[in-house]
């Protein structure tokens, strides 16, 4: 909550208390049907504590916190609530709150939280839920007095699509069980209350929609496999590339999918692939895929220069010739047009055609499907690869030597062969030679020699398969071995922010074009000069990518001993 918003509640506490008292809490009757007497309930943003009192009168162990002492004082006078029942604290820290609760309510609070703190706040809400517990949030959808991100009275007041909250909370492992829409005549506004349940144990969301496309859809080529793989890849590893639209669906730039296709198909058509692999049904007068010749030409020119890995590095470093840049743009255009085919035909009677829709330069999918793919992207990708390999091997005119195992090994090649940290390593060695010492990001101990310098994948390669520069940090060799394939804890990441940003500065100075490209893809927007704003946005995206990966993959967390 910013200063203007806090000041509003402090100076108008009596007026706000009257408004608070007059608004019905339609979520409470539903919530109590989910709880047992004696269950612990936390009301965040409790205001005067009215809902706390209502719950306590019905036998629940309810407490509340609010950011404004003046609002709490109103509640103590009106409801005779003790200090142990309502107290001052704020999201995202909630530093005084201990333990877990069978229910947490957060009513008309999250719209006062800015974008850089929102995920921290949602993560904190999730951490407070006991197994099987319930979270209730209520957020404004429309308000006649709100322009931009400000209410007419000066409060920070951002209107987000309810699907955005749902998306992030489901990425954190919760499941939405109910929602309620409200209209308020007095303020000419609409709001949405949503109820989420924490799992009792390990729960996976169903993937019937994707499975039906993979197994039931008719296929003449591999495009549907490539489309689902690309969307799952983007949803699980580059969340911010998706843009939520007004109807709760998600728009994904077609160019982002096309870039993924270039990577996926490159190993399948390389000159070294003998015999040539057929990637679609053999139809007289048609290629098995529309962009084969263009991609084969590009792959042939790079075959003696390091292949796809060298090509991608040259593109990201901005060192391609103008003619090469034009060639790549043309190829991306051809692939983008090919993507329109699976967009038009992916879906069947079970899925309720169609799963995808083209809109300008973007592909539109439903919010729930995007969320499922974000939650289950890694497992979806594995399933896609197996079905893709089986389909290619089964094509009528395929060479008998092209078995599912052969195809799968090529589809997996980027995972196996691209574990390359040489650019980051060179930058850190250069800094070490210049200054005489580096600092290990995770232990803050000095790295004095190149022999003791290792490059750590903050998010392990086995989880994200990315050598993006923001993910490559200097550490001592022993620390790198100790961390292995584990994720750093949230506390460790936050406490080492200065060291992480100092490492990024080294990479930015050495490889500005590549760093800008990698960071821009993570944060979902262009990055200019790597100033304080860009650093804040990048660190926020970096930190939350680690948390999403931990939540979705049940990965062990690590701190140095």
Can you describe this structure?
With 561 residues, the chain is an alpha/beta fold. It folds into three domains: 3-197, Rossmann fold, CATH 3.40.50; 208-417, no CATH class; 422-558, no CATH class. The chain contains 23 helices and 19 strands. The strands form six sheets. Strands 3-2-1-4-5-9-8 form a seven-stranded mixed β-sheet. Helix 12 crosses helix 22 (512-523). The chain is globular. Residues 202-206 have low confidence and may be disordered.
Please provide a brief summary of the model.
The chain has 561 residues and is an alpha/beta fold. Helices cover 49% and strands 17% of the residues.
Count of extended strands: 19
Radius of gyration (CA) equals: 26 Å
* Low-confidence runs: 202-206
The average pLDDT is 89
Distance between the termini: 36 Å
| Domain count | 3
Adjacency order of strands in the biggest sheet: 3-2-1-4-5-9-8
The geometry reads as globular
Strand fraction band?
15-25%
Number of DSSP helical runs: 23
Question: Which structural class do the helices and strands define?
Answer: alpha/beta
Largest sheet: 7 strands, mixed
Helical residues, percent: 40-55%
């Amino acid at each position: 909550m910013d200063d203007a918003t806090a000041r509003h509640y402090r100076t108008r506490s009596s007026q706000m208390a009257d408004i608070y008292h007059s608004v019905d809490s339609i979520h409470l009757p539903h919530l109590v049907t989910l709880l047992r007497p004696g269950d612990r309930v936390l009301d965040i943003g409790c205001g005067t504590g009215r809902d706390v009192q209502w719950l306590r009168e019905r036998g629940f162990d309810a407490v509340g916190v609010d950011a404004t002492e003046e609002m709490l004082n109103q509640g103590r006078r009106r409801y005779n609530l003790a200090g142990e029942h309502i107290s001052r604290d704020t999201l995202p820290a909630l530093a005084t709150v201990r333990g877990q609760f069978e229910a947490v309510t957060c009513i008309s609070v999250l719209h006062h939280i800015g974008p850089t703190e929102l995920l921290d706040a949602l993560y904190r809400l999730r951490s407070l839920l006991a197994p099987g517990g319930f979270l209730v949030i209520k957020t404004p959808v429309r308000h006649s007095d709100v322009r931009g991100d400000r209410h007419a009275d000066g409060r920070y007041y951002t209107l987000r699509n309810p699907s955005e909250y749902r998306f992030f909370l489901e990425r954190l492992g919760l499941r939405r069980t109910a929602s309620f829409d409200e209209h308020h005549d007095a303020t000419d506004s609409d709001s949405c209350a949503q109820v989420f349940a924490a799992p009792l144990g390990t729960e996976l969301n169903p993937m019937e929609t994707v499975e039906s496309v993979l197994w039931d859809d008719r296929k003449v080529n591999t495009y549907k496999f490539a489309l689902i793989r690309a969307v799952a890849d983007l949803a699980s590893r580059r969340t911010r590339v998706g843009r939520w639209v007004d109807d709760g669906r998600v728009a994904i730039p077609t160019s982002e999918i096309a870039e993924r296709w270039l990577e996926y198909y490159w190993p399948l058509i390389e000159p070294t692939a003998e015999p040539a692999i057929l990637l679609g049904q053999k139809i007289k007068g048609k290629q098995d895929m529309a962009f084969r010749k263009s991609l084969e030409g590009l792959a042939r020119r790079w075959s003696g220069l390091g292949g796809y890995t060298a090509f991608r590095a040259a593109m990201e470093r901005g060192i391609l010739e103008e003619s090469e840049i034009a060639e790549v743009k043309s190829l991306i255009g051809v692939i983008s047009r090919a993507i329109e085919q699976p967009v038009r035909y992916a879906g069947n009677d079970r899925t309720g055609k169609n799963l995808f829709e083209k809109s300008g330069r973007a592909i539109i999918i439903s919010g729930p499907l995007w969320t499922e793919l974000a939650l289950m992207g890694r497992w979806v990708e594995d399933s896609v690869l197996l079905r893709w390999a089986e389909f290619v091997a089964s094509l009528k005119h395929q060479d008998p030597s092209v078995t599912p195992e052969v195809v799968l090994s090529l589809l997996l090649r980027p995972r196996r062969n691209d574990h390359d940290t040489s650019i980051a390593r060179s930058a850190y060695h250069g800094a070490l030679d210049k200054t005489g010492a580096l600092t290990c990001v995770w232990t803050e101990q000095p790295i004095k020699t190149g022999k003791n310098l290792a490059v750590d994948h903050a998010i392990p390669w086995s989880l994200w398969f990315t050598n993006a520069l923001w993910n490559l940090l200097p550490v001592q060799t022993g620390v790198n071995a100790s961390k292995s394939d584990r994720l750093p804890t949230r506390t460790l990441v936050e406490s080492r922010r200065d060291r992480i940003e100092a490492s990024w500065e080294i990479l930015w100075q050495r490889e500005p074009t590549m760093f800008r490209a990698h960071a821009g893809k993570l944060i979902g927007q262009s990055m200019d000069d790597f100033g304080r704003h860009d650093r804040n946005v990048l660190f926020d995206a970096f930190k939350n990518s680690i948390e999403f990966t931990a939540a979705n993959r049940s990965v062990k967390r690590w701190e140095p001993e």
